[in-house]
Amino acid sequence: xxxxxxxxxxxxxxxxxxETQGESEAAQQRERDESQDVCPECGGxxxxxxxxxxxxxxxxxxxxxxDDIDRGPEWRAFDSSERDQKSRVGSPTTNxxxxxxxxxxxxxxxxxxxxNSLSSEQRKKMQRLRTWDERFRTRxxxxxxxxxxxxxxxxxxxxxxxxxxxxxxASVIYRRALEEDLLPGRSxxxxxxxxxxxxxxxxxxxxxxxxxxxxxRIDEMEFKRTYRxxxxxxxxxxEPADPESYxxxxxxxxxxxxxxxxxxxxxxxxxxxxxxHVGKSxxxxxAxxxxxxxxxxxxxxxxxxxxxxxxxxxxxxxxxxKELLDASEQTA
Length: 332
What we know:
Structural class: mainly alpha
């Protein structure tokens, strides 16, 4: 019998190392991922249909996968009250509350889980629990200070029509002022008003100083002094207010047309090109623009109406109005 010998190469006899095995597994995983990203029928891109829990092809409509995990609630709600009743989780943390919304809150309804009224003895017990719960929520003077200040920020933000994100920014500014010990010698209302004004400026939705002072509980001089102090000590980067940022609100309050609002913005842009905005109040320029633009568009508006809406005197409106028209004629 002849002896048969089988000759093998080094690559055939060499055992796979962990590095080569890992590379091959990674390549296979990439192939699987690439195959999952395209349609097996037409090669088109796939998209997830969360409403039906399916993965479908955007080109041919083939359902590639179904019965995906629905991470939303298993119930439906048609209004906010129904949503609050069915939801089993709490609200997210927020800087608008002194404890960021992480503490407990005992209701005031004096009813049990079935909606039945509590007895007199149980009502007294719940009242004592509410008292102690409130004491534990504000255990020191800083927490009491923060609770009062955030209430003021919420009140002023609502009165000024500021969004929740702006109020959140104002609460962060106040917390920084409290941490850096800027409160001694200044009122809580003053620092809270300065935080609201600075947050509105940073979000490019500014409000005039007169408006802020109107809803605040301090006078104008104290507000300006506190605002300058807070901005300087915290190093807040706040750019000068753009007059155009006031136009939309003023035009809405005056009931101006879209054409007049666009014309007012054009007047302000030409005025900035002519450098007439340097050293001028942005609110005054915006008031003059919303007065001049309707007149150029044959719409009726008086200086008294603009003055009432913008809190700018009629004398200032007339001066800035002439400056804007002169700048517009020079560039025309």
